[in-house]
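Milestone 3.1: sequence recovery, worked example.
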């Protein structure tokens, strides 16, 4: 009876809301923000993505034609933003790294098919998330929930989840994410720590992200707002521009 949706942008929210309002005899939970945010997908793409419940964002991935070195998964609007920002940083630090980006809209797809009608079969799950690669999962809620939904999956031991840890105070939006270790810099560090070939060669990248976190704390203490590179971040012009790599914001619609 339960369906839980975490749309990553405004078009996905429209698609999910339309589906929920047409449904009967279900408890539909929709988790969405109210602040201006990037628009990742066109309306047609959003309908397809939300109908499937999850999927690879090929325009943000660079593992086409082979296996990824790491899977970057995200569920929720802020986790999606931080994951894509982390992917962009990783392309700067270690451009040879093969990354697969998976966005989850329907949380119930993570459960096995025999547990929920929207769940993926083990074969479908393994094709998407692999059977032996590190998975860095950024989630809007408590990390343990993702582990509870996926503990039967074959690659669960390689799953590392970042999420809400009940840390927070009156501070900036990005600092709230930092306090819960779910920001782009922590995600980059997780990838470096869990992809074996990166541990030795990415020492300078680890130092760079450490310095950025220190710079962030100093900046918000002095100015009371996030650094311009955080507030004004966009999926960069140097990235692969697929149909989804848009620079619009939800406030524009």
């Amino acid at each position: 009876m339960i369906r839980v949706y975490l749309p990553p942008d405004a078009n996905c929210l429209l698609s999910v809301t339309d589906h929920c309002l047409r449904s009967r005899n279900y408890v539909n939970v929709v988790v969405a923000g109210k602040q201006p945010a990037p628009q990742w997908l066109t309306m047609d793409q959003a309908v397809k993505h939300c109908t499937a419940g999850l999927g690879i964002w090929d325009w943000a991935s660079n593992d086409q034609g082979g296996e990824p070195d790491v899977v970057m998964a995200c569920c929720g609007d802020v986790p999606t933003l931080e994951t894509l920002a982390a992917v962009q940083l990783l392309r700067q630090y270690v451009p040879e790294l093969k990354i697969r980006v998976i966005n989850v809209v329907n949380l119930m797809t993570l459960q096995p098919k025999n547990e929920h009608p929207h769940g993926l079969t083990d074969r479908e799950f393994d094709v998407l998330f692999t059977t032996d690669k590190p998975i860095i999962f950024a989630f809007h809620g408590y990390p343990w929930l993702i582990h509870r939904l996926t503990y039967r999956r074959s690659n669960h031991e390689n799953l590392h989840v970042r999420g809400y840890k009940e840390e927070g105070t009156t501070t900036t939006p990005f600092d709230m994410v930092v306090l819960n270790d779910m920001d782009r810099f922590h995600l980059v560090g997780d990838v470096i720590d869990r992809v074996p070939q990166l541990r030795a060669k990415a020492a300078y990248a680890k130092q760079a992200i450490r310095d950025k976190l220190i710079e962030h704390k100093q900046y918000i203490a002095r100015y009371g707002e996030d650094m311009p590179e955080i507030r004004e971040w966009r999926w960069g012009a140097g990235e692969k521009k697929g149909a989804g790599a848009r620079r619009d914001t939800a406030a524009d619609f």
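Residues 240-253 have pLDDT under 50 and may be disordered. The chain is about 40% helix and 15% strand.
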